[in-house]
Design brief:
six-stranded mixed sheet, 51 strands, about 700 residues, mainly beta
């Protein structure tokens, strides 16, 4: 993964509390896993969000019994990029370093990455199974398919890891036992189609039937279900926690069988019934991790469901989205007690889903305030979960050069409850002083492809008056995203409108700064289209005009549905040169950019996204070099080293070409070539030392490799 200029130097306050890592983009479906990233003896957290398939890394603060973490994006480059749906960090080869299990993208097959820190001295992962094959029925080997988060642990206490997974029917749990005698080799064989002798019997509440015979399930109850195997009562047998698609509760199952053959004989339907039972809207996911640095594993429950706006189904209640239970006992006989319901969520900006940032001087005090708009904010009303839009105003209590944003209201101008806006979907607001009266007016794009205009008639404070739902006669295909800028440099504001099809439309202002007059639109302006293979139809172009490289030629940034910000230069009238992707990296989904300079020596990128928070990136020089548009400064990882048959080279940027040369110590060149993100050298070499030279247009490095 590429290094990015993540910034945390703009403070954000909720009430009078400073958020620890406000600018990480938000969370929807976080999966928490442990690994000691910096090898300080405290387990850190890796957070993988299934909603946009993105990874974040956090360091424990190094204090015993502390639940505080620090955002540490410098470790992202050490992890593989093609992670999907879930990750589990489990030490399968018993070398003391957790390896990585995940789904193969857009499948239910498994990928396994070996942690190579023991071999190379630095954190990294080598793909060893793509996909993992297993015996799925007696005598039949095929890629192992798992519908949702499994449990990968030593189920039978024989010293290696096994796999428990809810069956495709959603009714049973299957056991794939590892029968290998070599910890470096994984050999999973189906050993039970009905592990634990229980069967799902859920309706609106998750519960199971115990003492069930192992009959073949003729029907599929539902797709999905997660299991977490752990010890719950200290009797040396593996028990389990079970969650299911739909119900809010978690069931604990207690094992009175043997180490070889599990038999669940009792259940705690509302676990933990001795404390505060889990009640997490729609399908809790479960994570057994050490949070407070006491070497005893705690429990985190986070939402495994997702919003479905097209069906008016909303499940993500971000105010109570990650329940942390600290373990007052030990790993053999745990005693879990609820500590908080908003773990990590209380440290970030996150209004819901599909956010758009707007910066403007709301109170006319000479500095810029921040409005965070989110399209879906789930609230609980009379026991039902409903989605509303949310307008969050953060007042700048710092100054124009060094802002500090404090949440002032989560219902700006009571717009959360305005029926006109509440009926709209895919809303995209912006501001502009269209009448040159010194205050900012509001313009709101939406699903129907038009623009609502609210004039600011300032009277001691901002006062917005509805003027029209058909501003400038704008009509694009759908999901209009307006942005104002003086494109022709004639002293008044022109209008760029992004559309769902990935195109832009320009409305030139032939009036003046006080009274706009809109010319006929220039459709498909500049032949720009930001659709791609991932979203070829609904690309949702979100434009922003800013000369951020300060070369005298304006730039156009366009966010899209796939999570990229496309960068264009405007060398001549109505024509563009495509420069690449901002930072050369997919940031999330549904990215909405806003670029702002607060002083001459810094420039900030505020990026709204599908998860409902904000990313913040900073460039210290006040401009962005061309090399940082499609690429950040490339660096490479070479592994394994020492190597046996071949080795891999991985670049931190998959959009920048790298060149390699391999030499022996006598001066003979053994090979050369080029690659983008990854290269595998597969030729057999005799034992000895070798010199690998790597370079691109801005950097060169030399590696010494050893073949034993």
């Amino acid at each position: 993964m590429n290094a990015q200029p993540y910034s945390n130097d703009i403070l954000v306050l909720h009430s009078n509390t400073s958020l620890t890592f406000p600018w990480v983009g938000g969370f929807d479906n976080p999966r928490f896993q442990n690994i000691d990233l910096n090898q300080d003896g405290f387990l850190d957290l890796v957070l993988f969000d299934a909603s946009d398939q993105k990874l974040l890394t956090f360091l424990h603060d190094g204090t015993s019994n502390s639940t505080h973490f620090v955002f540490a994006p410098e470790y992202l480059i050490d992890f593989p990029e093609n992670l999907f749906n879930w990750i589990l960090l489990v030490d399968y080869n018993l070398d003391g370093e957790p390896d990585l299990f995940t789904c193969k993208p857009y499948t239910t097959n498994l990928l396994i990455y070996k942690n190579i820190r023991k071999e190379t001295g630095s954190l990294g992962f080598e793909l060893i199974h793509d996909p993992l094959e297993a015996e799925i029925s007696p005598g039949t080997f095929a890629p192992l398919s798992i519908m949702d988060i499994p449990s990968i642990t030593d189920v039978d206490y024989d010293g290696d890891v096994d796999i428990l997974a809810v069956s495709p029917s959603g009714l049973r749990v299957e056991l794939y036992r590892n029968v290998s005698n070599n910890p470096e080799i994984l050999d999973f064989r189906i050993r039970s189609f009905c592990w634990g002798k229980f069967m799902d019997n859920s309706d609106s509440i998750l519960k199971v039937l115990l003492h069930q015979p192992c009959n073949f399930d003729q029907k599929t109850s539902h797709v999905g279900g997660t299991i977490l195997a752990l010890s719950l009562n200290g009797d040396s047998l593996i028990d389990a926690l079970l969650s299911d698609q739909g119900p809010n509760n978690v069931v604990a199952l207690y094992n009175s069988g043997t180490k070889a053959i599990a038999h669940m004989v009792s259940q705690d339907t509302f676990f933990p019934s001795y404390d505060v039972p889990v009640d997490l809207q729609y399908y809790p996911a479960m994570f057994h991790v050490d949070v407070n640095g006491d070497n005893q594993k705690d429990l985190i429950f986070a939402s495994n469901g997702y919003d479905m706006p097209n069906f008016n189904l909303f499940f993500l209640n971000h105010s109570e989205a990650a329940w942390l239970y600290l373990n007052r006992g030990n790993n053999q006989l745990p005693d879990f007690h609820l500590y908080q319901k908003d773990f990590f969520f209380n440290e970030i900006i996150d209004g819901g889903s599909n956010s758009v940032p707007v910066l403007f001087d709301e109170d006319l005090d000479g500095d810029l305030d921040l409005l965070l708009f989110v399209n879906q904010h789930t609230v609980k009303v009379h026991g039902n979960y409903l989605s509303k839009k949310q307008w969050n105003l953060y007042e700048n209590i710092g100054n124009s050069a060094k802002p500090i944003f404090k949440l002032k209201t989560s219902n700006y101008k009571n717009w959360n409850d305005w029926a006109l806006l509440d009926t709209l979907k895919n809303v995209h607001p912006t501001v502009a002083d269209i009448d040159n009266d010194g205050d900012k007016d509001f313009f709101i794009g939406h699903l129907q492809g038009r623009i609502i205009f609210l004039e600011n008639q300032w009277a001691d404070s901002a006062h917005y008056v509805y003027k029209t739902s058909d501003f400038a006669n704008v009509q694009v295909q759908a999901n209009s995203a307006p942005h104002f800028a003086d494109i022709d440099e004639d002293g008044d504001l022109d209008l760029i409108v992004g559309s769902s099809n990935g195109n832009l439309t320009l409305y030139e202002n032939s009036g003046n700064a006080f009274s706009a007059l809109w010319n006929n639109p220039i459709m498909n302006w500049g032949n720009i289209n930001v659709s791609d293979e991932q979203n070829p139809i609904v690309a949702n172009a979100k434009p922003f005009w800013y000369d951020y490289d300060k070369n005298g030629t304006p730039n156009l940034l366009v966010g899209n549905s796939s999570g990229y910000v496309k960068v264009f230069e405007y060398p001549s009238q109505h024509s563009f040169q495509y420069l690449g992707d901002l930072f050369g990296y997919r940031l999330s989904y549904q990215v909405a950019p806003w670029v702002q300079a607060f002083s001459s020596d810094s420039i900030y990128f505020f990026l709204g996204n599908s998860k409902g928070g904000l990313f913040l990136f900073k460039e210290e020089k006040g401009y962005v070099n061309r090399s940082q548009i499609s690429n950040v400064k490339a660096s490479w990882k070479v592994f394994p080293n020492p190597f046996d048959y071949g080795f891999y080279i991985k670049s931190s940027s998959n959009n920048q070409i790298s060149y390699w040369e391999l030499w022996d110590l006598t001066g003979n060149k053994l090979g050369e070539g080029c690659f983008y993100d990854r290269f595998e050298y597969q030729k057999s070499l005799p034992p000895g030392l070798y010199i690998l030279k790597l370079h691109n247009h801005s950097e060169q490095r030399v590696f010494k490799l050893h073949k034993p």
